């Protein structure tokens, strides 16, 4: 059996080691490092050549590395950080396992490497990016400017309540037929001008002068239309004209469209309602602006890193990548562990 392995087994079995074994050596190192303030010369030497606490094969673990690991575990109140011997034994076992894994080439596994990179990137984002993002803020002037620039989003569109007359014109109609239909609509407009003031929409005349199936029996009432919407079933010319009528009970001109003639009457209207920049809206806008500014700041940081490292792409080599459902031979070879060191 390997002598070092025999020594390790003895160490695991001997309870007296807690007083004078490896833990005692570590304690001596810690005590020595704290005895007196080193000179500049010795300090430079310690920085360049830190004291080695544990050696596993070719792996040397310095006192500083070991202390950093202990501090980390203590900060998390890990049980093994409460006892020197338990900590040392656990650390050595861990180091041996890591070295064995490396010997077998397990550290070359692509998935393991990617997981490690993901952890590293996550820490980078927390340490470097998040710190910069925490400094991003929004002042009152920015809030007001953003509010005014996006006022349409905080404005409830104006609405108009309309009555409509509609006479269709067949696609095969000649000029004479179109003129006849137009004359009938002109006649309806003249009659509408003399309707009693309390008439709802076009009243009963809608049944005679309108082919708009959903409204002709309701005085032509087609309900409320909201400004800025475009999903209405009537032609755009009709919708545009609907919001040009200024006064209630006013009539539009006859609107000529490809499918026929229209006449509108304004029954009622509602003015646009602008939501004020109150505390609730200001809080919502601040969150929105912060998100945008942080995103922009993160992109700036990423761009600065790209400039710093100046990545170079070898297009000729990259063009040889094979994107297929099955792994390529190269990726399979890369995934194989390295042969054990002899």
UniProtKB/TrEMBL annotation:
> Mind telling me which SUPFAM superfamilies this protein's record contains?
FKBP-like, Triger factor/SurA peptide-binding domain-like
Superkingdom of origin organism: Bacteria
Q: Which GO terms describe its molecular function?
A: peptidyl-prolyl cis-trans isomerase activity
Which InterPro entries did the record assign?
Answer: PPIase_dom_sf, PPIase_PpiC, PrsA_foldase, Trigger_fact/SurA_dom_sf
**Is Membrane tagged as a keyword?**
no
Q: What would be one Pfam family of this protein?
A: Rotamase
Q: Which PROSITE patterns match?
A: PPIC_PPIASE_2, PROKAR_LIPOPROTEIN
Keywords of this entry: Isomerase, Rotamase
Please state every residue range assigned to the domain named PpiC. 157-268
Entry keyword annotation includes Isomerase: yes
Protein name in the entry: Peptidylprolyl isomerase
Specify the species: Persicirhabdus sediminis
Q: What is the lineage of its organism?
A: Bacteria, Pseudomonadati, Verrucomicrobiota, Verrucomicrobiia, Verrucomicrobiales
């Amino acid at each position: 059996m390997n002598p070092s392995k025999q020594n390790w087994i003895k160490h695991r079995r001997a309870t007296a080691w807690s007083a004078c074994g490896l833990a005692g050596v570590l304690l001596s190192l810690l005590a020595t490092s704290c005895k007196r303030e080193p000179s500049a010369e010795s300090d430079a030497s310690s920085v360049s050549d830190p004291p080695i606490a544990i050696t596993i094969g070719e792996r040397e673990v310095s006192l500083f590395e070991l202390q950093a690991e202990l501090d980390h575990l203590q900060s998390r109140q890990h049980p093994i950080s409460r006892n020197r011997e338990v900590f040392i034994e656990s650390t050595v076992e861990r180091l041996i396992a890591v070295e064995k894994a490396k010997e077998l080439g397990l550290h070359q596994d692509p998935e393991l490497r990617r997981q490690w990179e993901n952890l590293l990137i996550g820490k980078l984002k927390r340490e470097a990016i998040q710190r910069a993002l925490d400094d991003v803020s929004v002042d009152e002037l920015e809030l007001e400017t953003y509010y005014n620039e996006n006022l349409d989003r905080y404005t409830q569109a104006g609405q108009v309540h309309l009555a409509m007359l509609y006479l269709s014109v067949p696609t095969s109609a000649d000029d004479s037929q179109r003129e006849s239909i137009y004359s009938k609509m002109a006649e309806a407009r003249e009659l509408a001008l003399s309707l009693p003031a309390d008439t709802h929409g076009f009243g009963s005349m809608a049944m005679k002068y309108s082919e708009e199936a959903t409204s002709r029996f309701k005085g032509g009432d087609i309900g409320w239309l909201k400004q800025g919407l475009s999903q209405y079933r009537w032609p755009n010319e009709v919708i545009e004209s609907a919001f040009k009528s200024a006064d209630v009970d006013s009539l539009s001109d006859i609107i000529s469209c490809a499918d026929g003639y229209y006449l509108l009457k304004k029954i009622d209207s509602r003015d646009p309602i602008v939501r004020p920049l109150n505390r609730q809206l200001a809080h919502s806008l601040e969150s929105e602006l912060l998100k945008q500014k942080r995103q922009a700041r993160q992109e700036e940081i990423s761009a600065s890193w790209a400039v710093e490292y100046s990545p170079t792409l070898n297009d000729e080599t990259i063009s040889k990548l094979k994107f297929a459902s099955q792994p390529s031979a190269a990726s399979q070879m890369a995934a194989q562990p390295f042969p054990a060191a002899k």
